[in-house]
Automatic annotation (TrEMBL):
<dbReference type="GO" id="GO:0015081">
    <property type="term" value="F:sodium ion transmembrane transporter activity"/>
</dbReference>
<keyword id="KW-1133">Transmembrane helix</keyword>
<dbReference type="InterPro" id="IPR005899">
    <property type="entry name" value="Na_pump_deCOase"/>
</dbReference>
<keyword id="KW-0472">Membrane</keyword>
<protein>
    <submittedName>
        <fullName>Na+-transporting methylmalonyl-CoA/oxaloacetate decarboxylase, gamma subunit</fullName>
    </submittedName>
</protein>
<keyword id="KW-1003">Cell membrane</keyword>
<feature type="transmembrane region" description="Helical">
    <location>
        <begin position="171"/>
        <end position="191"/>
    </location>
</feature>
<keyword id="KW-0812">Transmembrane</keyword>
<dbReference type="Pfam" id="PF04277">
    <property type="entry name" value="OAD_gamma"/>
</dbReference>
<feature type="signal peptide">
    <location>
        <begin position="1"/>
        <end position="19"/>
    </location>
</feature>
<dbReference type="GO" id="GO:0005886">
    <property type="term" value="C:plasma membrane"/>
</dbReference>
<keyword id="KW-0732">Signal</keyword>
<dbReference type="GO" id="GO:0036376">
    <property type="term" value="P:sodium ion export across plasma membrane"/>
</dbReference>
C-alpha cells in the first residue's frame, strides 16, 4: 500500500514539473526575432494612430496603401503582405467602429504562438462596446523573421450575445431544412396529377383501336378458277359432241 502511495506521489510531482516547464512566461519567448514588448508596442502604436484618424483620413490611407502595394508587386513580383494586412485592418475598422461609440483607451493584450504563426490580440475600449484587433504574423523562411500577413477588427460579443446568435443560426438552418423537405413533398404529391393527365390520352387511343379493327384483304386466286371452268366446259362439250372453240371464259369479280 505504501509503495502504491509513493508511486502516485511521484507521478503527481512529475506532472506538476512538466506543467511548470510547459507554461513559459510569454514575455520571455522569442517570436521569430521579435520580443513580447516589440509586438505589444507595434500593435498599440498602430491602433492608437488609427483611432485618432477620421473616416476621410482612413479612406485616404486605404487608397495610399493600395497604390503602394501595387507598385511593390510590380517592382518585386510578389505581394506586400504587410500593406495588404494594413488595408484589411483599416477597412474592417471602418465597418466595425461605426456604432461602438467614442474611443476610450486600450485594454487587454495577449499573444498566442503556434508553430510558425503568432497571433496578437489587442482589446480596444469604446464607450458602448469593445473591439478586438487581431494581428496575424507568419514566419518567413527567406528573411528568417516574422511578418504581418493579416489584421482585422471585430466587435467583442458577450457570452449571452454569442449564445443568442448561435441559437438564431440553428433555427435558420432548421427552418431551411424543413422548407426544402416541404418543397420535395409537394413535388412528389404533384406526380399523381401529372400521371392522370396522360392517362385519358392512352385510354382514348385504346378505345379507337378497339372500335376500328383491322380489315383483312383477301386476295382471290383467279387462275385456279379459270382452269377449273375450262375443264368443266371441255367435259360438257365432249358429252354433247360440240366444239369448244367458241367458248369464252370470263372471270367474275366478287364485290
Amino acid at each position: 500500500m505504501k509503495k502504491k502511495l509513493s508511486l502516485m506521489l511521484c507521478l503527481c510531482i512529475m506532472a506538476l514539473t512538466l506543467a511548470a516547464c510547459g507554461s513559459a512566461d510569454p514575455q520571455d519567448v522569442d517570436y521569430g526575432g521579435m520580443s513580447y514588448s516589440d509586438l505589444q508596442s507595434s500593435a498599440q502604436n498602430l491602433v492608437t494612430s488609427i483611432a485618432a484618424f477620421s473616416e476621410e483620413e482612413l479612406s485616404a490611407a486605404i487608397e495610399t496603401n493600395e497604390q503602394y502595394a501595387k507598385q511593390y508587386a510590380k517592382q518585386y513580383g510578389r505581394e506586400y503582405t504587410e500593406a495588404e494586412a494594413v488595408i484589411s485592418l483599416l477597412q474592417s475598422w471602418l465597418d466595425t467602429t461605426s456604432d461602438v461609440g467614442t474611443f476610450v483607451g486600450l485594454g487587454e493584450f495577449s499573444i498566442d504562438k503556434t508553430s510558425d504563426t503568432v497571433t496578437v490580440d489587442q482589446i480596444v475600449n469604446f464607450s458602448e462596446r469593445d473591439v478586438d484587433v487581431t494581428f496575424v504574423y507568419e514566419y518567413n523562411y527567406l528573411t528568417e523573421e516574422i511578418e504581418m500577413t493579416d489584421a482585422t477588427a471585430d466587435i467583442v460579443y458577450t457570452l449571452g450575445e454569442k449564445l443568442e446568435k448561435a441559437a438564431l443560426n440553428t433555427l435558420m438552418g432548421m427552418g431551411t431544412v424543413f422548407c426544402v423537405l416541404i418543397l420535395i413533398s409537394l413535388i412528389i404529391y404533384c406526380f399523381k396529377f401529372i400521371s392522370k393527365v396522360g392517362a385519358p390520352k392512352k385510354e382514348t387511343a385504346k378505345a379507337e383501336a378497339t372500335k376500328a379493327p383491322a380489315v383483312e384483304t383477301v386476295n382471290e386466286n383467279l387462275t385456279d378458277d379459270l382452269e377449273l371452268v375450262a375443264v368443266i366446259s371441255a367435259a360438257i362439250a365432249a358429252s354433247e359432241g360440240t366444239s369448244t372453240d367458241s367458248f369464252v371464259v370470263r372471270s367474275i369479280h366478287r364485290r
